[in-house]
Amino acid sequence: MLGKKTIEDIDVRRKRALVRVDYNVPLDSEGNVTDNTRIKLSLSTIKYLIDKEAKIILMSHLGRPKGKVNEKFKLDPAAKELEKLISKKVKKFDEIFSPDIKKYINDRMDFGDIVLLENLRFDIGEKSNDRQFAKSLASLADIFVNDAFGAAHRAHASVVGVTEFLPSVAGFLMKKEVEILTSLLESPSRPFIAVLGGSKVSGKIKVIRNLLGKVDSLMLGGGMSYTFLKAKGYEVGKSICEDEQMSYAREMLKLAEKNNVNFILPVDIVAAKEYDSDSDRKVVSVQSIPVDWMGLDIGKKSIELFNKEISKAETIFWNGPVGVFEWKNFENGTRSIAKAIAESQAITVAGGGDTLAALKKYNLSSKFCHVSSGGGASMELLEGKELPGVASLMDK
User: Is residue 84 annotated as a catalytic residue, yes or no?
Assistant: First the structure.
């Protein structure tokens, strides 16, 4: 459980509510939002505050402007998209904080109205958790609501700093994310399996170690699987492989055995001559990967092996594609695994940017019980870490 106060635990009626949202959304070359999922996820908290006649002061980051104003990263497109979704005017400021903004909120803003501050990362004080910057943000409001799960693993001014100055609670999205992901670790329906993919082992070291104490089966695909295959003595050719993680891979294989976890690796792969979408390719056993070829997807036998395990599960967590799914010739593994999980009767949870992109590509997002909005935050939570953005909220 969350163990922190939420927006429903305090009186927000006719209060000035400073709300941290995650509007770090993709934009096209014309500055239009191409995926409004994160904005949609903020609506339940915003609508609740509108119903309570609060003054709603939204703040978010977008991209990596490195502490400088950058037209490319202004939040105007997010404000326009929010207006469309909520059918209500959103006043967007061109600054993060100023006396004029404060005066507008106090004197001119009506209860139930919404304003959006400019990109927080235009100020270097955001990422450095500058106390004065946080104090300025907090001075705009009576309460702070953190609904940006995607930023909850960052000890930034708008996430942690402001909690020193205001009563601070979780929004509905934050509550849902933390409770669902925590329940995976604390009380999953069994069998509980995790499917991990992506290119690097190094980015998931702590997650793998923690999950090996929680799951019944762990399946690895994608680039990260070749480090484990090499650790088991297989030739992996020119496939992605982190030789410096070899001892860790061997240690995890032993830990899986010790914990009686079924550790499943691919048994065949789609190998390519070059890293190219139209490269020559062939399906080979993991025992016979040519030295000058590379693995870019899992093969048919691996898909069958993975899917058989998926069909037995009661709880499934998936993070990371099992091949280069962006290319048609190497997407079959990821598409098949995604479809099998979506069609299973299990409690299904997905997280991570590439995973979400795959679900969107195959129109499967709605088939999952929960799709996490925060890749980095979800992985840190599954590592067993306490997230700064959650820890700093008021205890129940």
Answer: no
Do 169 and 192 belong together in one domain?
A: no
Same domain for 328 and 374, yes or no, is yes
Clarify whether residues 136 and 246 are in a common domain: no
Percent pLDDT > 70 in the chain is 100
Nearest to 352 by CA among 383, 386, 324, 376: 376
On the question of pLDDT at 351 being above 90, the answer is no
pLDDT of residue 205: 87
Q: Is 351 a catalytic residue?
A: no
Let me know if residue 361 belongs to a domain: yes
Domain, as residue range, for 80: 16-173
Which residue is catalytic, options 353, 367, 384, 385?
353
- Mean per-residue pLDDT over the chain, rounded: 95
Q: Is residue 202, in this structure, part of any structural domain at all?
A: yes
Which among 129, 145, 173 is the end of a domain? 173
Look at residues 386, 382, 360 and name the one whose alpha carbon lies nearest to residue 40.
360
> What percentage of the chain has pLDDT greater than the value 90?
90
Are 165 and 204 within one domain?
Answer: no
Predicted local distance difference test score (pLDDT) of residue 65: 95
Domain boundary among the residues 114, 145, 173 is at 173
Per-residue DSSP letters for 135-163? HHHHTT-SEEEE--GGGTT---TTTTGGG
**Region of residue 363 (phi > 0: left; psi between -120 and 50: alpha; otherwise: beta):** left
| Statement: residue 199 has pLDDT above 90 | no
Residue 240 lies inside a defined structural domain of this protein: yes
CATH, residue 129: 3.40.50.1260
Instruction: Report pLDDT digits (tens) over 295-315.
Output: 999 999 999 999 999 999 999
Q: Which of 168-177, 178-187, 213-222 has the lowest mean pLDDT?
A: 178-187
Residue 13: active-site member: no
Give the closest residue to 12 by CA, choosing from 217, 171, 121: 171
Pair 87, 193 in one domain: no
Is 352 a residue of the active site? Answer: no
Per annotation, catalytic residue among 200, 300, 361, 385? 200
Q: How many domains does the chain have?
A: 2
What does 44-73 look like in DSSP terms, one character per residue?
Answer: HHHHHHHHTT-EEEEE---S--TTS--GGG
Catalytic residue among 15, 20, 38, 121: 38
Alpha carbons within 13 angstroms on the beta-carbon side of residue 187 total 4
Q: How far apart are the first and last CA of the chain?
A: 11
